[in-house]
Amino acid sequence: MSRAEVGTGQGGRTGTGLAIALLSGLSFGLAGPFAAALLAVGWSPLAVVLGRLGGAALLLVVPMIVVLARGWRPRIPELRAVVVYGAVPLAGAQICYFSAVDRLSVGVALLIEYTAPVLLLGWTWARTAARPRPATLWGAALAVAGLVLVVEVWRGAAVDVVGVLWGLGAAVCLAAYFQLSAAVDGTDDGPRALVLTAGGAVVGSGIVLLVGVVGLLPLTARAAPIVLAGWTAPWWVGVALVAAFSTALAYLTGIAAVGRLGSRIASFVGLSEVLFAVLGAWWLVSQRPTGPQVLGGVLIVAAIVLIRRAEPRV
Q: Could you tell me which InterPro entries the record lists for this protein (predicted)?
């Protein structure tokens, strides 16, 4: 195969990875509006998390059984990865984030959690002593500036030390998600991605349920109708959407994207989740974005493009 053919194949793989990463960002981003509809009728945050993970586990357990029945067997290290994946990126990130929201404004909590890509840059820099390219650092600065504008942290932000620690915990869990996903190529080895997501959802559901049962966080749900985009729907529609679209599809596409792009680039493309969340909230729950939020979205897109052009091709 010629060098030109190799380059074309790599370019196609990267382009597909970017498309999958944006789909993952859209899926994750709409989780907020879907959850907001449930929270508005009396659901507790922990109950929404349980609905996300439990529903995703139910959706993915059948295809996982099919994969196992066809003879594919995970190795011991992969089983350990499933446990860690369910405990840290799935249950841990969401529990930490909602605990931060309990003490901080939503904007501040979200901004702290989304320092994860910057943490990844710092971690890679410290571990490999390979200084990121200047354009990469400028992209990181643009991404942070865009997030500040999108979440509008200057509006009633209340700083609490414990809340900040919870937010940093969520950021570490999110960074762990990108690092763990980097070990699984969702294109070349679909069974690993499926088992990691499905098994992690089962483990995460168990942890969230335990947190609720022992009373660390309230676990309450109501069978009241929800409203999405002006349409009144049964409560289970919201649970189905947040479980199927914003959890099962989101994590599967996220793993596939990281396998193609690498954890660092995929983490920055994942920032599009915030932009999709703002647009989804405008459409589904009538939360209109402001001028600064639109400007922040433009900065995030610019940061993604800058990082993409700065990072060396693999």
A: EamA_dom, EmrE-like
Q: Which positions ≥6 away from 106 have C-beta within 8 Å?
A: 151
Q: Taking 90 as the threshold, does the pLDDT of residue 206 lie above it?
A: yes
194 pLDDT above the threshold of 90: no
For 3-12, give one letter per residue: b (16+ CB within 10 A) or e: eeeeeeeeee
Question: What whole-number distance in Å separates Cα of residue 293 and Cα of residue 173?
Answer: 26
End-to-end CA distance of the chain: 17
- Band (311; pLDDT cuts 50, 70, 90): low
How would residue 139 be classed by pLDDT, with cut points 50, 70 and 90?
confident
How far is CA 266 from each of CA 22, 55, 60, 117, 312, rounded to the nearest angstrom?
Answer: 9, 25, 23, 9, 14
Three-class HEC string of 44-91: CHHHHHHHHHHHHHHHHHHHHHHHHHCCCCCCHHHHHHHHHHHHHHHH
* Pairing status of strand 226-228 against strand 231-233: antiparallel
Contact 170, 96 (CB under 8 A): yes
- The contacts found for 74-78 with CB under 8 angstroms, 24 or more apart, are 74/192, 74/195, 78/192, 78/195, 78/196
Q: Of 35, 96, 78, whose CA–CA distance to 277 is shortest?
A: 35
DSSP state string for 135-169: HHHHHHHHHHHHHHHHHTTTSS----HHHHHHHHH
Q: Is-contact 114 171, C-beta < 8 A?
A: yes
263-298, pLDDT tens digit by residue? 667 777 777 777 787 788 778 877 777 788 778 878
Beta-sheet strands, E only, within the chain: 226-228, 231-233
How remote is the C-alpha of 307 from its chain's centroid?
Answer: 19
